Amino acid sequence: MEILAATASWLADPAHWQGPDGITVRFLEHASISVVAVVVAGAIALPIGLWTGHTGRGSLLAVNTANIGRAVPSYAVLVMVLPISLQLSPSYGLDVIPTFVAMTLLAIPPILVNTDAGLREVDRDLVEAARGVGMSERQVLARVEIPLALPVVVGGFRTAAVQVIATATLGAVVAYGGFGRYIIDGIARNDDERLLAGVLLVASFAILAELGFGALQRALVSPGLRRGESGSPFQGPAERARVSGG
Questions:
Q1: C-alpha to C-alpha distance for 54 and 141, rounded to whole angstroms
Q2: CA angle, corner 171, sides to 4 and 157, nearest 5?
Q3: 10-residue mean pLDDT series, the chain (246 residues)
Q4: Cβ–Cβ contacts within 10 Å for residue 65, how many?
């Protein structure tokens, strides 16, 4: 209990919220690398997942490749990228580039897998009905598959964001900032209050991201599906008729 009280006092100290090592600055560093990594990962994984999920081509290869990527530790990626980034950019190669690359690679698999799975799990009867009324493949994707799969797709971003926020602390190992700086410095200085404060800040940030994406995920469920008992694209005939407007 004493360590918790000491950590609370550390967090409440105004001096720890100001300056280059202040909580505000560290939060902005942590948030910026996390947001940029997830956005770039989405720009890479989303089109691939939409294409494989819609066409069914290359789905197995893409998903298996993404799952293999999950097995590579982010720390190993940091170490492998570090010497290359130092050669390419002496200014940012020690901190920003390795952290960015490692976090982006970490975020790609859940986004790709969820996007692919979300589209493939859309009721095929609805897809065929859309084609039957004359919709083009692009219209089927945009008007039927994506709206129904959107909660699952957002679930991939939800997983990616939480993983990146939790893992971005490793950036402090290669001189990046963020909340991981408190953890690394706390270990180096034998400062338990700083160490625990860093852990609590990272955990709080990850929980907030989890809650935010969870609320967004629920809000994006199609009203027709929300009225269904299971809340999934796999409804009975009557529910499918309501969803399709029949």
A1: 7
A2: 90
A3: 90 94 96 97 96 92 87 90 89 88 96 95 91 92 93 96 96 93 95 96 97 93 62 41 38
A4: 14
| Residue 218's CATH number | 1.10.3720.10
Q: 186: alpha, beta or left, given left = phi > 0 and alpha = psi -120 to 50?
A: alpha
Helix axes 146-167, 23-55, angle to 10 degrees: 140
Q: How far is CA 16 from CA 4, 13, 44, 110, 198, in A?
A: 16, 6, 38, 35, 12
> Is 137:54 a contact under the CB 8 Å cutoff?
yes
User: Which among 80, 145, 142, 154 has a CA at the least distance from the CA of 111?
Assistant: 154
Amino acid identity at 208: L
d(CA 108, CA 91): 26
d(CA 145, CA 135): 12
Q: What are phi and psi of 176, to 5 degrees?
A: -80, 165
- Which structural domain range is residue 112 located in? 27-244
Q: Is residue 41 included in any domain, yes or no? A: yes
